[in-house]
Amino acid sequence: MVLVHGLLMSGLDLTLLARRLRRCGFATRIFSYASVRGDIDDSVERLYRFITAQRPRTLHLVGHSLGGLLIRLLLERHPELPPGRVVTLGTPHNGSVVARRLWRRRWGRRLIGGSAATLAGAVPPWRGARPLGSIAGRLPLGVGVFMHGLPRPNDGTVAVAETQLDGMDDHMVLPLSHMALVVSAASARQTCRFLRTGRFEHAVTTSAD
């Protein structure tokens, strides 16, 4: 399994999630890339080489925020990769209102850099290449709180509506902020559940632990 971090992160933020998924029975690797200064196309190809160097027979992918879009681009360009499932955490599949508003400001353009177009929605439609589950947060703590126009409910950065994706297999909303999605035990349990079964566990009441 490969985990892919989001904007302004390095991959260290995924350490706890990776540990929990290992306890769930998965071998995990974290892919790190330059989310601001780097080129998205180059990052996609680096991710491809990172994966193929491991020669996996089954390939599960987990992406937080921008990382989920990177995964979608990877699978669009390299459909020959081994089978597996995908979980995205707080990924703006329909484009990010916050990213579009940041791009209008000089300091905002510096903040999101080369990822702007991808975050704004410049990603090919999902073709259902493999099972995909999307987890959203609804605790509004994040940069989006200070920006007008972010639809509710949201996780403070990404709106729940932005995490919807035509052709996805399942969708789950948890009482978590954008960054809490990668450190919450509940989020890790739901990720594990989907990777094992292709569905989230909707029958249980899930807290933000």
Please tell me about this protein's structure.
α2 crosses α3 (66-77) and α4 crosses α5. A six-stranded parallel β-sheet has the order 2-1-3-4-5-6, with helices on both faces. The radius of gyration is 16 Å and the shape is globular. 32% of the residues lie in helices and 12% in strands. The longest helix has 13 residues, at 40-52. It has helices spanning 15-23, 40-52, 66-77, 97-103, 106-112, 116-120, 185-197, and strands spanning 2-4, 29-31, 61-64, 86-89, 132-137, 170-174. It has one domain (2-197): Rossmann fold. By secondary structure, it is of the alpha/beta class. β1 (2-4), α1 (15-23) and β2 form a beta-alpha-beta unit.
Question: Structural class, judged by helices and strands?
Answer: alpha/beta
Ends apart, CA distance between termini:
23 Å
Element-by-element helix/strand order: EHEHEHEHHHEEH
Report the sheet-strand fraction.
5-15%
Helix count, per DSSP? Answer: 7
The structural domain count equals 1
- At the fold tier of CATH, the topology name is Rossmann fold
Any idea what the shape is?
Answer: globular
* Low-confidence sequence ranges: none
What gyration radius follows from the Cα positions, in whole Å? 16 Å
Mean pLDDT: 92
- The CATH architecture would be 3-Layer(aba) Sandwich
The CATH top-level class label: Alpha Beta
How much helicity do the residues have? 25-40%
- Count every beta strand, where a strand is a DSSP E run of 2 or more residues: 6
CATH superfamily descriptor: Alpha/Beta hydrolase fold, catalytic domain
**Main sheet overview:** 6 strands, parallel
Side by side, the strands of the main sheet go 2-1-3-4-5-6
